[in-house]
Amino acid sequence: MSTFAALGQLGRQLGGSRVVVITTSALVVIALIAIVGPLFSPYTYLDSNLDVRLLPPTMDATRYFGTDDLGRDLFVRTLMGVRITLAVAIVATLVSLVIGVVYGAIAGYAGGKVDAVMMRLVDTLYALPFIFFVILLMVFFERNFLLIFVAIGAVNWLDMARIVRGQTLSLKEREFVEAARLIGVSPTRIIFRHITPNLMSVVVVYVTLTVPQAILIESFMSFLGLGIQEPQTSLGSLVNNGVRHTEGAPWMLFIPASILAFILMCFNFLGDGLRDQLDPKERSG
Amino acid sequence: MTLLSVSNLTVRYKSSPRPVVDGLSFAIDRSESVGLVGVSGSGKTQTALALLGLLPDNAHSSGSVRYQGQEILGAGNKVLNAIRARRIAMVFQDPGAALNPYLRIGEQLRQIVIRHGMATGAAIDARGIAMLEKAGLPDPERQYQAYPHQLSGGMRQRVMIASALIAEPELLIADEPTTALDATVQVQVLSLLRELREEMGTALLLITHDLGVIAGNCERMLVLDEGRLLEEGTTKAVFASPAHERTRAMLDTARNAGGQAAELRDPERKPALEVSDLAVSYIEPRTDRLWGKTELVAVQALSMSVRPGETVAIVGESGSGKTSLARAILGLVQARSGRVCFFGRELSGLLEGRSNSDRKQMQLVFQDPVGSLNPAMRVHDAIAEPLQVHEPGMDREERDRRVTLMLERVSLDKKLLRRFPHELSGGQAQRVAIARALIIKPAVLICDEAVASLDGAVRQGVLTLLAEEQRRTALSIIFISHDLNVVRQISHRVLVMYMGQIFEAADSADLFAKPLHPYSRALIDAIPVPDPNVPPTKPPVLGEAPSMIYPPSGCVFHPRCQHAQDRCRTQAPKKEHIAGAIVACHRASELDLTITDSRQISIDAL
Fold first, then answer.
1. Mutate which: B329, B354, B377, B449, vs A, most A CBs within 10 A
2. How many domains does chain A have?
3. Inter-chain touch A179–B366, beta carbons under 8 Å
4. Partners of residue A179 in chain B, C-beta under 8 Å
5. Is the peptide bond prior to B101 cis by the omega test (within 30 degrees of 0)?
6. Do both B181 and B87 map to the same domain?
7. ipTM surpassing 0.85, yes or no?
8. At A282, is the pLDDT very low, low, confident or very high (cuts 50, 70, 90)?
């Protein structure tokens, strides 16, 4: 309840900023097009037609973005990529959000030895080379969709946990937490009713900065061939495929790359906008 | 001759339709001292900023501000820079924030001297050091080389005054110059200001919410309310017969802090809370070596008790260990030794070791009311939470009923239940904090500077509320304050603390009539009297309390004591019982510190 109240308050504060409103609407529009768009095309992402390989974008014949080297429709495949990319980013971020906030808040509030042990574990995980870790995962398990979420989430929650722990350390010294302790509120309740709602502003900002990071990691993994498996696709694998045909069919690279860049830019601006808006409140306490 | 004339000054912020300063007109003559008084939010500081062209970008000012006939409102930086510091200087409330932490004091003074071409070569430094000496800094050569953080708050404010007056301005604007300081230091700074003004003939615009400060320091006063000038006149005339009702109300609250202590129901009852030999110390890493720790003793083997229905005030300058004592009693910090007993039963040293039924018996009200409420929790949830914790079986309706009842008891409107803390005023937030503490019916309420951030009528209201609650439920109150004026009426007994020790423990009435310890007397003398007919007091003690890490030998107060003798320097005094009071002073029985001068008469007349 209190967490929702905090979010509601946040929403009201955000109402004013132009950057935030524009980027949010742009992202919503992209997501809607990605979901609805394929319905308006006669093709599916699987259909390959070798007669129309490497067709440049045209308005007629509904090949809006052209076709790839296997004659698959790029319009549908790009929207499919946007869907997967956004899904990976958002799910991975949510995973890291939940684990990171709970882990960080507990470590920060408990303090002392508990905190030391919990945070050294984070430090240890930090020390693992990420790509090495992903390749290991891929070797041990089948390559699948779920694994990407796990891999990205497993890396991102570390940052989140550190940030949340730091905030919790300063929040627990605040008078309202002491007041709650004096009243006899249990530690669990203090963490979830008094600390977490007050972390929201920082966490929301950090989440918007984590999403593009997750997108980049996914693209990078797909680019290396560790990510999404054909015939499914993501923006990263489309770009990867496009690079091989840059000379003959530049649209195969530039269309998905521009969309990827645009989405990343939106998230980055959104994060900046949120940070600018929430900072003054942070300072005034 | 008119130095500064302001007419129809209006300051408006883009975000708000109501102007913060509304058509203000006044004039200041050469060498005159004018007080600008008003409750917080009345536009005092905005006026000062507007005069010097220091308003933020989103503020708009209109009207006219003339300095010796020259229009300076809206003037360019070139004109303003020639006037700022050289003609009109300003001293801000927080000396820590107004000094650049990265520059030595000397460098900050040099800049002003050089900027205004007042000296060259070696004469620059000589001038700076001479000014520091005038400002009463001990060892000015050394302080000239010091960084701001190496000085205490009072010393920093002296440096601020030195840097404001070094260019010999004709007008000094001081915005709450002593609000952040202890009363004992406030007296020193105000008397320094008076001396320097007398010597240099500087006019003064003193901005404050404290009518006691105005009374002793200003010839004329302006009363500001919601951005408008309420009234204007000589200080004596306004104090004697205020023209406006609101001014009268302000004067009444200044003369009477409020919160009449209730008659003790049963003075013979067993104490609700008994503290014996409680000592608190903090272990801190050494700052002078890489390794090792030092022990900072905040409270030394202190004993006290509070009976049901009794208010015990703990007073002392900042750093005297008042708050550490409260935190140890509550179990927020572990005491090094000693016992805390609740109705004869010893409590665990740490809060976490106490049962929930023990915890609810002692509650705390903090100094910062907004900070002590969870910013993400609505008023209703904040007041209901203690009930949820202590009476989990209670159904929702009953809980809501109790919350509403409690809200009525602290005189708050039901509409506030849906608000967040930042949507409340300071006084409202403090009432919510009190409601939250009292809804579980504690036996002891500790108020740590609970009214220090509130002014005037709001403070009076909160004190009255506390006294009412005490009458109703025989609540024991430990009232921690640095302001003796507040403590006067609300408390039955007063403990005077200095460097972690009790110097004097006496009944409130006795203490204010005939203090036994020179330090108690000094604290009482430091209260600014809201009466312009009482001559401003000389500083009753000099300097500030020394560091707890290196306490002075003998009686820790001797370096600041006017009555110190040789044995005070070598021998720590023992506690003596004199006429129902406990006092720790070698000379307690031989000194007569009875307050007999005009101050006492005027305080009693309040």
1. B377
2. 1
3. yes
4. 364, 366, 372-373, 433, 436-437
5. no
6. yes
7. no
8. very low
